[in-house]
């Protein structure tokens, strides 16, 4: 199959927006991992003596935030290249699944953090 050379300069604004979106995914992934590290650090410094349940929740938050942070990075990379191709082919469609994925995973992390703090504050 012969690929036609696409002049990307005709879509400069769209490609620059796509790059900014990728960087936002990258920042989001770093922030999610940071939330996990923060939770574990707070637990080790202040709540390690509370209960075995809080120990488990803090470790789950750390593991979940690492996995989700990496997933956000890969999602951003894959999304960038898919959108780049769609922009060049003029077939761009906005994402719904990626938005739902981000909202659900961050919500789960926030709920875990809330559950942890509720358990810590009860003792």
Please give a structural write-up.
This protein is an all-alpha fold. The protein has one domain. The protein is 81% helix and 0% strand. It has 3 helices and no strands. It has helices at residues 12-47, 52-89, 97-122. Helix 1 (12-47) packs antiparallel against helix 2 (52-89). The radius of gyration is 20 Å and the shape is elongated. The relative contact order is 0.16. The model has no long low-confidence stretch (mean pLDDT 86).
| Low-confidence blocks of residues | none
- Figure out the total of helices: 3
Mean pLDDT: 86
Gross morphology is elongated
Count of DSSP E strands? 0
Query: Into how many domains do the coordinates divide?
Result: 1
What's the gyration radius in Å? 20 Å
Instruction: Return the string of H and E elements.
Output: HHH
What oligomeric state do the depicted chains represent? single chain
Structural class category = mainly alpha
Keywords: Cell membrane, Membrane, Transmembrane, Transmembrane helix
Protein name: DUF202 domain-containing protein
Membrane topology: Multi-pass membrane protein
Subcellular location: Cell membrane
Quick structural gist:
The chain has one domain.
Overview features:
123 residues; mainly alpha; 3 helices
Give the topology:
Elements: H1 12-47, H2 52-89, H3 97-122
Membrane topology: Multi-pass membrane protein
Keywords: Cell membrane, Membrane, Transmembrane, Transmembrane helix
Subcellular location: Cell membrane
């Amino acid at each position: 199959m012969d690929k036609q050379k696409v002049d990307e300069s005709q879509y400069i604004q769209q490609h620059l927006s796509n790059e900014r979106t990728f960087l936002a995914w990258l920042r989001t992934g770093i922030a999610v991992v940071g939330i996990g590290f923060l939770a574990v650090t707070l637990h080790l410094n202040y709540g390690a003596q509370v209960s075995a349940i809080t120990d488990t929740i803090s470790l789950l938050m750390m593991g979940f935030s690492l996995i989700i942070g990496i997933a956000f990075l890969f999602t951003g990379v894959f999304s960038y290249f898919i959108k780049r191709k769609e922009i060049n082919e003029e077939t761009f469609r906005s994402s719904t699944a990626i938005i739902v994925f981000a909202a659900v995973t961050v919500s789960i992390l926030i709920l875990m953090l809330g559950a942890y703090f509720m358990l810590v504050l009860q003792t």
